[in-house]
Amino acid sequence: MRLKKILLGLSMCVGIVALASCHGTYRPIESSTSISNTSNVNSNTGTTSGIVISPEDLREIGIDENKEYNLEFWAKNDSDVTQQNVYKEAVESFNEYYPNIHITIRNYSDYVSIFNDVTNNVATNTTPNICIAYPDHVATYLDGDLVQPLEQFIYDEDYGLGGSKVKYESINKEDIVEKFYKEGVINNKTYLLPFMRSTEALYINKNYVESLGFTIPDMVSWDWIWEVAQKGRDERTDTSFYPFIYKSTDNMFIQLCKQYGYDFTNDRGENLFFSNDVANMLLNIADKYNKKLFSTFKKVSYPGNHMNVGNCIFAVDSTAGSTWIGSNCPNVDSSSNTSYQYETVVRTIPQVDVNNPIMISQGPSVCVFKKTDDDVVTASWLFAQYLLNKETQLAYCKTEGYSPVLNSIIESDEYKNYLSDETEYSVKRAATKLVSDNRDKTFITSVFNGSTKSREAAGYLIEAMSAAKYQTVEGINNLYDRAKNLYKIN
Predict the structure, then answer these.
(1) Are residues 92 and 185 in the same domain?
(2) Spatial CA neighbour of 407 closest among 440, 381, 358, 364
(3) Which helix (H) or strand (E) element contains residue 288?
(4) pLDDT band with cut points at 50, 70 and 90 for residue 77
(5) With 286 labelled, which of 41, 189, 269, 436 sits at a CA distance of 20 to 30 A?
(6) How far apart are CA 256 and CA 253, in angstroms?
(7) Which of 68, 18, 46, 56 is nearest to 375 (CA)?
(8) What is the C-alpha separation between 423 and 425, in angstroms, rounded?
(9) Do 93 and 191 share a domain, yes or no?
(10) Which of 63, 67, 61, 107 lies closest to 84 in space, CA to CA?
(11) Is residue 354 left, alpha or beta, with left meaning phi > 0 and alpha meaning psi from -120 to 50?
(12) Cβ pair 248, 201 in contact under 8 A
């Protein structure tokens, strides 16, 4: 046994003696002690706050090279075989370094299915070891103390980011885009590493816009959208035509609140969006419904299905859906498989203030679940951080409009060459570039147990405004009450 310094990269409230075990590093700590770094920032508020490692979160970090580990990785991949193959190749290359860590991948087509399976498997103690997740979902998992805080692992001198005993080329924490990293901090603890990032984009049928006598600005305002949409509706009254379709109405609601400066939620779990300001915002949306300028995915299906046959001028969808929009797009729904040709322009989502653009940050992150065996948690951590390697990041970002999460990759020649590679689908490249270029203009909402319900309620309010009974002040008050009861929120 030899004495080791605890190198967590964090300020220490008390001195700690760390002892090296036979296969790892155990960091004992008095029950009353916390380790904090006041330079860390709470991702949800943007305010300076100490990150604390509680005694119950501490693990004996290390693995036994002579032991076989069998782990489950639950991955979201949109039923995309290419994305599934990226994960498979990541496991295979990881096993070149750690052949004793066996990883079984369970593929999911959406985040909600993963969330439901995790919550359903708690009773049988069969949650995964590593999991792709959203922060909102992890906040719910934390109610059952299921997810491992990562500070101790991130800063461990042996097995942390850039650790000396990690067999592959481990990244440095400073290489992760800071804003993306902070999104994994919940209640002052880091529970997720970012894997990929996306946002929403405005997809525009350039030919249609120009035929109406308009030129597409570099930054699009909501007023311009509605002006062009109205001109399009004036010329086409058929029911198959939708000037503007929004895929995610919860994102639409949240981003409009942010752009207008209206409160949505806060870190205490309070829902602040049942306000008079938001009521006026909703009445404006009702007006666009009534003029038949606007519809949603839940009402008319995927925006790309309509754009790709010339029945939609504008669509807001995830940058991770870019391969489904545009002429000759790689992924085509059978219902929109026609020879219609148009040029697709990609812009940031419509803005209230074009001089201060802002958009939501989203995309897959990865978390590690708590297990009774510390070795298993360390093995899980080693694979979780491996997903940030250059080859996996570059390969996955090319499957859709995703941005890598490492500064070094975003600035690399390989990434820049991909963005200019004309053999790759142009709309996908434009969407990917939009994410990377605007990473300093993104935001996330407060994360707490129940924040998923807040998002669902937000989308419900947008969808409901197509009903005449809610299109008055009294109607909105009734709608507010209905949403609170339906989603069980304050």
Answers:
(1) yes
(2) 440
(3) helix 276-290
(4) confident
(5) 269
(6) 5
(7) 68
(8) 7
(9) yes
(10) 107
(11) alpha
(12) no
Distance between CA 151 and CA 10 in Å, rounded?
9
Gyration radius from the chain CA atoms: 24
Among 14-23, 97-106, 330-339, the least confident range: 14-23
Work out whether strand 130-133 and strand 69-76 pair parallel, antiparallel, or are unpaired: parallel
Instruction: Using CB atoms within 10 Å of the CB of residue 102, give its burial: 0 to 12 exposed, 13 to 18 middle, 19+ buried.
Output: middle
Distance in Å from the first CA to the final CA of the chain: 55
CA distances from 21 to 12, 24, 165, 312 (A): 22, 5, 14, 64
* Cα 130 → chain centroid: 17
Q: How many CB atoms lie within 10 A of CB 485?
A: 9
Instruction: Give the domain range for residue 226.
Output: 200-360+450-487
Average pLDDT over residues 459-471: 98
Has residue 223 been placed in a domain? yes
**CB–CB of 154/173 below 8 Å?**
yes
The residue type of 144 is G
pLDDT confidence bin for 334, thresholds 50/70/90? low
Q: Residue 94 CB: number of other CB atoms within 10 A?
A: 20
Q: Residue 483 in contact with residue 253, Cβ under 8 Å?
A: no
Residues 296/482, Cβ–Cβ less than 8 Å? no
197 within 8 A of 438, measured Cβ to Cβ: no
454, 373: one domain: no
Q: How far apart are CA 221 and CA 360, in angstroms?
A: 16
Give yes or no for residue 8 having a pLDDT over 50. Answer: no
CATH number of the domain to which 236 belongs: 3.40.190.10
Return the amino acid letter for 321: G
Sign of the CA dihedral with 198 first, then 201, 206, and 208 last: positive
Tell me the pLDDT tens digit for each residue of 211-236: 999 999 999 999 999 999 999 999 99
The overall average pLDDT reported for the chain is 89
Torsion angle, CA of 323/324/326/332, rounded to 10 degrees? 120
The amino acid occupying position 451 is S
Residue scoring higher pLDDT (322 or 490):
322
> Residue 406 in contact with residue 388, Cβ under 8 Å?
yes
- Specify whether 351 is located in the same domain as 392: no
How many whole angstroms separate alpha carbon 376 and alpha carbon 379? 5
CA atoms of 321 and 428, how far apart (whole Å): 8
